[in-house]
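Forum > Structural Biology > Help requests

Title: Can anyone predict the 3D structure of Antitoxin PrlF?

Hi all, first post here. I have the sequence for Antitoxin PrlF but no way to get a structure on my laptop. I'd be grateful if someone could post the C-alpha cells.
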Amino acid sequence: MNDPRIPNITADNRVQSNTAEPMEAHHSVSRTLELLAADMNAYPERMLPVDTHLFDRITSLVGHVDVDLNSPLSAEDE
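Reply #1:
Sure, ran it for you. C-alpha cells for Antitoxin PrlF below:
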C-alpha cells in the first residue's frame, strides 16, 4: 500500500508526512471533512465532548502504539 500521501502516526500523536502536498489535494479527505462540517452545522446538539474516562481508556489501549499506514499487514494480521 505504500502511498506517500498517507502520513505515519506515532505513539506521541505526531503526524509524520513524507509529502508537502496540501490537504486540499486529497479530494476524499476534503469531501469527508465537508460532510462532517455539514452534519455538525445541521445537528449541533449531537456534538458531545469526549469524556475523560473514554479518552483515558483509548489512551491505555492504543496510546503507546506507533501506526504506519503505509506498511503492509503481516500474514497473521490478515
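The mean pLDDT is 77. Residues 27-42 form the longest helix (16 residues).
Shout if anything looks off.
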